[in-house]
Design goal:
By secondary structure, the protein is of the alpha/beta class. Helix content is 38%, strand content 24%. The protein has 2 domains: 170 residues, P-loop containing nucleotide triphosphate hydrolases (Rossmann fold, 3-Layer(aba) Sandwich); 78 residues, no CATH class. Strand 7, helix 6 and strand 8 form a beta-alpha-beta unit. Helix 5 runs parallel beside helix 6. Bound molecules: adenosine-5'-triphosphate. The site of adenosine-5'-triphosphate (ATP) has 11 residues, from strand 2 and helix 1.
Length: 255
């Protein structure tokens, strides 16, 4: 597999606090790579730097062979980097389908035809319906977005990201706040999507991480202390110690 995302020696400081401390990270095409670590380890800060929302102090981000470190958010989005957030961002009063269509419209930029009713524009409608279908929400397309349950909102948010035809999905805690049943649906969905997309996943649910990930990187105080296959990471004594300061905690959480 070729290297799609390569991060070298990335540094981000907030005053005296180094949130990203010389981070190296490689994500290969087609893999689901999980980024785990205790609260405050700097996971969200990295996602922000990859999406272009946070400017690193130094270091380099390469995407598909290009140095994108100084690229704007829209330029990265056009290149295929799509980010989901811990907080779902939906437009109330719009239907499920319309929420996804807004994403498609944004991706198409000026190329859509503003003088035609949006619902008749195939280049907007079809990708939106395809994305809804791939997350299992096609039959809810016409409903008001607020009729969806919390777990379904997460599925919808995923559809909105997929509608951008991403080459790299940055998913920030997609399982946060979900019931067990809702989590199971989303884990199943991610398991199916991971064959089609390259995914960098930040997630606290260790059971989900170890069920889904091809590669796991463990972040502590802004540094990757270990990166490798799930079994290798789980067995790493430094990971067990650093992650929660308790040798058995990681094993218990991943069980
Ligand atoms: N805008 C900011 N200004 C100052 N400090 C910040 C800012 N954003 C994050 N931090 C600090 O940087 C560190 C890393 O935060 P970050 O949110 O990236 O961690 P995280 O691993 O995503 O945590 P969590 O798992 O709780 O979401 C924390 O100590 C946090 O308080």
């Amino acid at each position: 597999m070729n290297e799609l995302l390569v991060v070298r020696n990335l540094v981000k400081r907030y005053g005296g606090l180094t949130a990203t401390d010389g981070l190296d990270l490689t994500v290969r095409s087609g893999e689901l790579h999980a980024l785990i670590g205790p609260n405050g380890a700097g996971k969200t800060t990295i996602m922000g730097q990859l999406a272009g929302e946070i400017r690193p102090d130094s270091g380099e981000i390469n995407f598909d062979g290009q140095a994108i470190t100084r690229w704007s958010i829209p330029r990265r989005a056009l290149a295929g980097i799509a980010r989901s957030y811990q907080i779902v961002q939906l437009v109330e009063g719009f239907s499920v389908q319309e929420n996804v269509m807004l994403m498609v419209q944004a991706r198409l930029g000026h190329s859509f035809r503003p003088w035609q009713p949006v619902l008749r524009q195939r280049e907007i409608v079809e990708p939106a319906l395809r994305a809804l279908d791939s997350v299992g929400l096609a039959d809810r397309a016409r409903e008001d977005v607020m009729t969806l349950a919390h777990g379904e909102h997460r599925q919808l948010e995923l559809a909105m990201v997929l509608a951008m035809s991403p080459r790299l999905l940055l998913l920030d805690e997609p399982l946060a706040g979900m019931s067990q049943a809702e989590s199971a649906v989303l884990v199943d969905l991610l398991g199916r999507l991971k064959r089609q997309y390259t995914i960098l996943l930040v997630e606290h649910d260790m059971q989900a991480v170890f069920a889904l990930a091809d590669q796991v990187s463990v972040l502590v105080y802004g540094k990757a202390i270990c990166s490798g296959a799930p079994a290798q990471v789980r067995a790493d004594p430094a990971v067990r110690k650093a992650y929660l300061g308790d040798d058995d905690a990681l094993a218990r959480r991943a069980a």
